[in-house]
């Protein structure tokens, strides 16, 4: 009898142990979240600005419509020195005085194998009116798309009555008969400027 009771107790104990084991829920596995490193890429804004063709270097060929009804191409002007003066706007006081100064010395420039062109962003119609009114013997070139202005880097921010605008900085460039930039004048002061350009032409 004693052996049967012991056997029965063992069975009960084993059952209890089995129930306890099966009743225990397995522990949930903890998933470790991997830290993802986000690399921030900063866009580099390297704005390259041209400083013009460079003294002593050949000027890139360009073409612009002219008040003579033709298209002026730099490559067609080889054999002559070229005076290219950029001005802000037709019929304004400063631009009128500058144009007159080149007009009054035009014959001297011609004698020294030089041709003058005035350049602005005005239309050919405005150029024609300006040229006719002031009796300029040289032609004006219309750079409405700023293509040649960009070659010579003359478009600059300006303060107009307290507001910043883009416009042509008064500038003149002397290109020799081989198409090489020989001299440049930036932030031009009008008084005496045409005489200074003429003096430079005489040295070529």
How would you portray this structure in words?
This protein has 6 helices and 9 strands; from the N terminus they run αβββααβαβαββββα. It is an alpha/beta fold. The protein has a domain at 63-202: Glutaredoxin, CATH 3.40.30.10. Strands 5-4-3-8-9 form a 5-stranded mixed beta sheet. It has a two-stranded antiparallel ribbon with strand order 1-2. Strands 6-7 form a two-stranded antiparallel sheet. Strand 4, helix 4 (124-134) and strand 5 (139-142) form a beta-alpha-beta unit. Residues 1-13 and 20-50 have low confidence and may be disordered.
Keyword list:
6 helices; two-stranded antiparallel ribbon; 204 residues; globular; Glutaredoxin; five-stranded mixed β-sheet; alpha/beta
Q: In a few lines, what is going on in this structure?
A:
The chain is an alpha/beta fold.
CATH-defined architecture of the domain at 63-202 = 3-Layer(aba) Sandwich
| The CATH class of the domain at 63-202 | Alpha Beta
Classification by helices and strands: alpha/beta
Main sheet strand line-up: 5-4-3-8-9
Form type: globular
Terminus-to-terminus distance: 137 Å
The share of residues in helices is 25-40%
The helix tally amounts to 6
Strand tally is 9
CATH superfamily of the domain at 63-202: Glutaredoxin
What is the chain-wise order of helices and strands? HEEEHHEHEHEEEEH
CATH topology of the domain at 63-202: Glutaredoxin
- Please, what is the average pLDDT? 82
Major sheet: 5 strands, mixed
Beta-strand share of residues = 15-25%
C-alpha Rg, in Å? 41 Å
């Amino acid at each position: 009898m004693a052996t049967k009771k012991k056997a029965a107790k063992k069975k009960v104990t084993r059952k209890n142990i089995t129930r306890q084991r099966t009743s225990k829920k397995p522990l949930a596995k903890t998933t470790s979240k991997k830290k993802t490193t986000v690399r921030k890429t900063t866009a580099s804004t390297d704005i390259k600005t041209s400083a013009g063709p460079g003294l002593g270097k050949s000027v890139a060929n360009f073409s612009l419509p002219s008040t003579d009804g033709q298209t002026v191409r730099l490559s067609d002007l080889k054999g002559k020195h070229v005076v290219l003066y950029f001005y802000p706007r037709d019929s304004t006081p400063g631009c009128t005085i500058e144009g007159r100064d080149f007009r009054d010395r035009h014959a001297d420039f011609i004698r020294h194998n030089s041709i003058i062109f005035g350049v602005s962003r005005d239309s050919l119609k405005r150029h024609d009116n300006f040229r006719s009114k002031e009796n300029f013997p040289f032609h004006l070139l219309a750079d409405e798309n700023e293509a040649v202005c960009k070659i010579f880097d003359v478009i600059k921010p300006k303060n107009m009555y307290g507001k910043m605008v883009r416009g042509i900085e008064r500038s003149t460039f002397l290109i020799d008969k081989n198409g090489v930039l020989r001299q440049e004048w930036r932030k031009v002061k009008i008084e005496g400027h045409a005489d200074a350009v003429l003096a430079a032409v005489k040295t070529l």
